Amino acid sequence: MDSGLSGKTVIVTGGSRGIGRAIVERFAHDGANVTFFYKGNAAAAEEVLASVHAAGQNVAADQVDVTDAAACAAGVERVVERCAQIDVLVNNAGVIRDNLLALLEPEDVQTVLDTNVGGVFNVTRAVAPHMISKRAGKIINVSSVSGEKGGRGQTNYAASKGAINALTRALAVELASRRITVNAVAPGVIETEMSQPIRDLAGDEVKSRILLRRFGKPEEIAHAVWFLASGFADYITGQVLTVDGGFKME
Amino acid sequence: MAQAEITKEEINAVYPVVAATVADALGCDAEDVKLDVSLIEGLDAESIDFLDLVFRLERAFKVKIPRGKIVEDARGDLPEADFEHKGIVTDAGMERLRSFLSEVPADRIKAPLKVAEVPRLFTAETFCKLVVRSQKTAG
Fold first, then answer.
1. What is the extent of the structural domain holding B78?
2. Which of A146, A232, B42, B93 could pair with B38 in a Cys bridge, judged by C-beta atoms 3.0 to 4.6 Å apart?
């Protein structure tokens, strides 16, 4: 069976590194026209482009700060001008500012909420009208196991990911009549730059709580996102798919 | 008020494209989109269809239409607190609506009217006027 993603237009936010990069590469491999948004790391974005272009794949990068609603609307319009439509949106951009609640600075909370939740609102609000008009589309939000299970020092991050899960379910209801599915993927601890501090600090202890006794790879999250975006998942909406190797938190 | 400046000729000029756009958005026949038809009660539109319709009208006429524009324009310079109270349109608000939505038969604009139910009043002509106002703003 074919995934049905060849020739589809895909937007991936936070696509220059880590899980986002793996998602970009996964869709590009299937022949999708991928545009990824990145905030500021042009060197990382160039590296992704060089890699996918060497493989003859159709990928573009656009510097868009997801916390800026106007920039998101403009970025989405640029994709529509170039590709005429948007078939898949992957809201992946996210930041982490872990600390105990008492030690969190207000900006640690605001930045995480603005990026992880506000960013999903901003990009989705710009994309949804295009999908509604087409009466088709797939929206996949990258959440986290932190959204469902507690984690010390992650009140801000957990709140943001819990919000994404709730948003996912509510938006699925809102858009179902227009044949748009909305799902989330909740990764556990994945081998990325973002999780490096926690893996450095308590890697063995964290690993001992993962049934499969290893950290996940970005590609393993990309596969789950790819599945939810593919024709294989046409009958799935409003779900949060946990991909964590069997992670048990405190 | 703004709608007083909109002529029948201006409405008729945009009506064919508005009707076709409404038909596309709602999946109905363009000939069913009469000027006076209520989109919700006559053509089974849902609230999400208005989002789609405005989006399509923006593209068809190359105009920018802020979300919530109809109610905002109807309210005009009337402060929000004078237009509605606890989600119900006030007497002053009703007066504004009857004047602004002059295409809607007066007996359809009955108190008590929830602000959230105002879109039930909208007809195809309401959207023609919205387009004309947006063209004038842009032009």
1. 2-138
2. B42
Residue A210, SS3? strand
CB contact, 8 Å: B58 with chain A?
A: no
For chain A, what is the domain count? 1
Contact A133 B25 (CB under 8 A): yes
CB B120 within 8 A of CB B41: yes
- What tokens appear for B75 in the block? 């309210």
Catalytic residues of A: 157
Q: Is residue B113 less than 8 Å (CB to CB) from chain A? A: no
A248 in any annotated domain: no
How high is the ipTM of this complex?
0.75
**B75-101 residue pLDDT tens:** 888 999 999 999 999 999 999 999 999
Residue A145 CB contacts under 8 Å (≥ 6 apart), including other chains: A151, A186, A187, A188, A242, A244, A247, A249
Tokens of B109: 């604009």
Interface probe with B: pick from A77, A81, A133, A134, most Cβ of B within 10 Å: A133
Task: Report how far residue A59's alpha carbon sits from residue A34's, in angstroms, rounded to the nearest whole number.
Answer: 5
Contact A132 B56 (CB under 8 A): no
